[in-house]
PROLIN-rich signal peptide protein (Caballeronia udeis), 416 residues
Amino acid sequence: MPFSLLRRRRAVFGASSDNLPADHSLRWVVWLAVLLVVLALHWVAGRWMERNRSASNPEPAEHVPVQVELLTPKPVAQAPTPAAPPPPAPKPVPVPVPVKQAEPTHAITTAQTEQAAQAAQAAQALQAAQAAQAEQAAQAAAQAAAQAAAKAASDAAASQAAAAAAAAAAANGDKFSVPPSGELRYDTRINGVMNQVGNIHWINDGQHYEMVVSIPLPFVGPFVYSSKGHIDAFGIAPEQYSEQRGRRAADITVFDRTTKQLVYTKTPNNQPLADGAEDRFSVVMQLSSLVRGSPDKYKPGVVRQFSVADNDSNEIWPIETVGDENVQTADGNVQARHFTRLPRREGDRRRLDIWLAPDLGWLPVRILQTEPNGMQIEMLWRGKLQPPSATPGQSGAGTADASEETTPAAPGSDKP
């Protein structure tokens, strides 16, 4: 091979090998720049979502509670039962008047005289029997009239006593109006991200109630919370509360009002049952019933205490009235009264906020629970802004004017 050709090839290959490291370094610089740009865009998008995820319903601002009045459970005011009108007195039985026999004006025979005497004796006996029956009927009528008068007097006294008791209850007790039956549906969000639709199945027949809160969760199974019982002198009175999370067995709490004990299936430790005790879901309807009965009583700063039972313990919940606020729902803005549960103990970072809307018959339009780790679980009214239709016999016991979906963790739950 000629020497000139060999020098030319070395010059070409030498130049190529010298440029190879520079091209390789340039590619790495380009890929690194692209990666930094992608990371920067993700960071900007995350910050934007964090700032705008709940702009319509911002998180309640921290505030220092100003206590105006501390409310404790009291017997609810009951309307007096109208006294039944006294029964009409029986009509007196007319006494037959004996008819005087006309004396004969002509001569009669001895046989006729005897027949006439027998007929007169029979007539006298009949008259005596009729007089005795009339006297007995008159005595029975007088006795019935006396009994009716005594019953009327007793009913009047009972009516006066009931009216006095109702007046005393109205003066010292809580006005109360249980919401009517209805199927309530809510949009649910976890940390601002839309979840599946939840619902509250609520039944109230005036003497008993049933509340079933359920929400389906993918891959986990439905979360179902159930509360049922009756309505007594303190309002909604649970008899049994149960909660079932996914495919796990349900935990049940029994409110034994005969022995005044709380009995749990999760633990063998029974606890005393206080008057007006609620469970974690009935307390929402109890608050709604109290506000429905006397909305002007719950002004900003007023704190009411509730005894609330869990599936293995019970404690006092202080719930404060914050004030009236606007809540943005899928159907538009609605005015609602904001209530918040104050810390139950030192270092309690869990928070529960409830908004009750007067346009919905003071039913909950929004519920927001903040966990100690910062996770937020929200329920927001879904559908038209109108309360369930009232049906006869579905008002709260002891009211004169009573007419008229959920979260993976129960409100106020300390459980994961």
Remarks:
- The two ends are 84 Å apart (CA to CA).
